[in-house]
Design brief:
Layout lengths: L2 H8 L13 H15 L3 H22 L7 H16 L9 H28 L7 E2 L2 E2 H4 L5 H14 L1 H11 L5 H8 L3 H19 L6
Antiparallel strand pairs: 1-2
Helix pairs in contact: 1-10, 2-3, 3-4, 3-5, 4-5, 7-8, 7-10, 8-10, 9-10
Amino acid sequence: MHAGLVTLLLDSGANPRLMQRNDPGASRELTGLLRAWSDGDTRAFDELLPLVYDELHRMALRSLAGERAHSLQATALVNELCLRLMGWDEARWQNRGHFFGVSAQIMRRVLVDIARRRRAIRRGGAHATIPLDGIDVSAIQPDADLAAVDEALERLAREDPRKAHVVELRFFGGLSMEEVAHTLGISLRTAHNDWAFARAWLYRALTGGQVS
């Protein structure tokens, strides 16, 4: 099981590694650039990237198991994310929460694709290291099974898509509970309730317990 997810599922409080995002001026600037990008202004992405890069890098480090992740690999993950984001020509960005939520989804897909390719090679008896432009999942988190995490989230999503999205935004995106609530258009209390349920559900699913 992914060690970072176990820690997060066991921690009911605020995560000290999450950023403090209390600058309304910066949020307005970011939202303005996102909307300009949605309207076809290609220069907006160039202006946007320096504003979000550090946070995307932190998201990548978190997804790559935090302290064990090499910064070069996190940089490679962010670069892959940016390439995929540039292909979203028809995206209608709403706000920073929407942007980081989508970024979290893309990072998840990149890492799960690598993990599944690694698992397929293991079954074939070949070497298990599957780099993608500098991202080497097996070297960073040898005990992790991101494919299993993804499969558990997919199972949860079939039962309750919103709760699965809460986990995705928290774990892969590193969003605060306030930002999760804002992104999903739900109350903060509902976000906390969804998070509590999803934590218990996924912990049981990923540690071999019974899931109702």
